[in-house]
Amino acid sequence: MKFFSVDSPLYRFLSKLLDVIKLNFLWILFSIPLLTVGASTVAAMSVALKMADDEEGYIGRDFIKAFKANWKQGTALWGITAAALYAIYLDFQFFEALEGNPILFLIVGIASSVLAVSALLYSYPLVARYENTLFRTINNSIDITRKYVGRTLLLSVILAAEYILFQFNTTMLFFGILLGPGFMIYTVASCSKRIFLLIEKENGGA
């Protein structure tokens, strides 16, 4: 039946879902040492960017290749990410702990969160797709956020909704473990790929 053929929407959906599950498993496996979370995320993003336009080949082979190729930048980017998240966490902890809840800490925390999202949201897909210095990559992420504010806000809302959904109950938590990170990485990659193609078109395909 055509409904179950390789060209049917159902088949393509199930195939993509299986690829996301594979990607999620690889991301978790290669992130276990914690130090490798950055390299693992860049590798997953590299595969997800190809998946976004049905360009993926062999998930496992492509993931490992990207992991090795982006080990240094991925690890450095993860160090920056971890430091930024910890600093923001401490700021909000001070806001809650100090008497009177000083509004300055709240303002700094919100501003720092916005800056962190701007600097890091597109940095992982940028490292996965282009060769550049880490400083330029982060700067490019900020530029993309500023130029595509609407798309970035929509992407942030979608990611927040996915996170909340996967935390909704025990059943959804199971699905969150099964495909949560992979699904969110694919979401970022899909949005980033569209923006990258627009930028490349503006620059004559470069």
Cα end-to-end separation: 44 Å
Could you tell me the number of beta strands? 0
How large is the radius of gyration? Answer: 18 Å
Q: SSE order, as H and E?
A: HHHHHHHHH
Count of separate DSSP helical elements: 9
* Integer average pLDDT: 89
Shape: globular
What is the percent of helical residues?
A: over 70%
- Structural class per helix/strand content? mainly alpha
Pick out the low-confidence regions: none
**SS strand fraction:** under 5%
What summary fits the major beta sheet?
Answer: none
Comma- or semicolon-separated keywords:
mainly alpha, 206 residues, 9 helices, 81% helix, single chain, globular
Describe the structure.
- The chain is globular, with a radius of gyration of 18 Å.
- Helix content is 81%, strand content 0%.
- It is mainly α and 206 residues long.
Summarize the structure.
With 206 residues, the chain is mostly helical. The protein has 9 helices and no strands.
Write the layout of secondary structure elements.
Blueprint: H1 9-31, H2 37-51, H3 59-69, H4 71-97, H5 103-120, H6 123-129, H7 134-147, H8 149-166, H9 170-202
Helix pairs in contact: 1-2, 1-9, 2-3, 2-4, 2-6, 2-9, 4-5, 5-7, 8-9
